[in-house]
Every structure is written in C-alpha cells, then in structure tokens.
Amino acid sequence: MPMTKQYDAAYFERWYRDPALKDQAIGGSARLARKVALAVATAEYHLERPIRTVLDIGCGEGAWRAPLRKLRPRVQYLGFDSSEYAVGRFGKRRNLHLARFGDFEHLRPCAPVDLLVCSDVLHYLETRELDRGLPALAELCGGVAFLETFAHEDGIEGDTHGFKQRPARFYRERLGALGLAPLGSHLWLSPALYDDAAALEVSAAG
Asked: Does the keyword Transcription regulation apply (predicted)?
C-alpha cells in the first residue's frame, strides 16, 4: 500500500524553502510574484476594476496572500487547505481554514470572489474527490480563476508523489462542462463573465 502523502512541516520546507531548489521551488518568490501579477491583471481586465476578494482553495501556508496584499493592500484573502500543520501554524494570521477539496461539494464559505485560486492541487486528487468539489470552482468564482494544473503531456518534474497521469483533455472537459472558459496560462473565465467576453478572448475548447 502506498504511503499517504503528508502535507506537514517537512513537506513545505522541502518543496517551498529548500535552498538547493533556488527559484525553481514551488514557492520561489520571483516565480510566485509573476503568477500573482498575471492572475490579478487578468481578473481586473475582465472585471474592469481592481479586485477586492480572493478565495484560495488548497492554499497550503497561504503563500499567495503576501504578494496579493503587496499589489492590492485592501484585498480580502480567504484560504482553505487540508494541511493541519499549515492551518495550525498560519491560520489565524493569514485567514486560513481547514478543509479538503472534496468538502467543497457542500462548502460555500463566501459569495463569488473576484479571483479564485486553486494552484497545484487538482492533479494530486483522486477522481472521486475531484468530481465532488469541482462544481464549487465555478460557483465561487465571479471573475477569473487561476487553476494551475499539470497533465500527462507535461512530463512534470519535482513533487511527483501522488501525481495523477491524466490527459489535459480530462480537465478541459470537466471545467468546460461547468461553464468555465479557458483564457490560457492556467486562467479560466467565470460563467458570470462569459457572455461579455469577445470571441478571441477565450481559447477554443479542445
């Protein structure tokens, strides 16, 4: 029987702060800042105003919060993660709460947000849990979602423990069925904004 993956202190030290990985680490500051800037700019482009609310599902230690606040100091950030370590250590300071992805089958902790983040999560989930929580991504996103997800075609390096070898088509079909429209670079437009998008602002499903 394979070992259960543990998102404990050792995991975050290894994959987010190991000096040997430098800026190639999951949590490399420069890489993260670029992702945050991309997501914020895209959301604000489609909303035509500054973002006010962010929901981060699978937030880990809440690493997105600081670079978000650097760009938009007044943004309301809310995070959820299954790691008891991360929530126990950072929950109070960073507004993180304990929940598994599958809990979002029923969990609706806030009104639809301007920017929904679910980064480096979906490709580690069992299909049953993925399908339980997936509808929440569309229902809780009122603007743009950053859903960083890797597929079988990508040949990923790094944390491959528990990685699900699914084709990109698997995710496109499921997210598209929810009404989320692909914008490229892991970004998806919410169903609420789709009718206002120009034809060439959204990618062709395929």
From this structure: no
Residue 167 Cα distances to 33, 98, 149, 164, angstroms: 28, 30, 11, 9
Instruction: State pLDDT tens for residues 133-188.
Output: 999 999 999 999 999 999 988 877 666 677 898 999 999 999 999 999 999 999 99
Q: Tell me the C-alpha distance between 192 and 110, whole Å.
A: 16
Query: Among 19, 30, 86, 22, which Cα is nearest to 59's?
Result: 86
Domain boundaries, the chain: 9-193
CA distance 116 to 123: 17
Q: Are strands 113-117 and 141-146 parallel, antiparallel or unpaired?
A: parallel
- Which residue is associated with the tokens 């959820």? 80
End-to-end CA distance of the chain: 36
Supply the DSSP string of 112-124, one letter for each residue.
Answer: PEEEEE--S-GGG
Would you say the C-alpha torsion 96, 147, 165, 129 has a positive or negative sign? Answer: positive
The answer to whether 165 touches 152, Cβ cutoff 8 Å, is yes
Sheet strand arrangement including 76-81: 96-98, 76-81, 53-57, 113-117, 141-146, 187-189, 181-184
Q: What is the CA radius of gyration of the chain?
A: 16
pTM greater than the 0.85 cutoff: yes
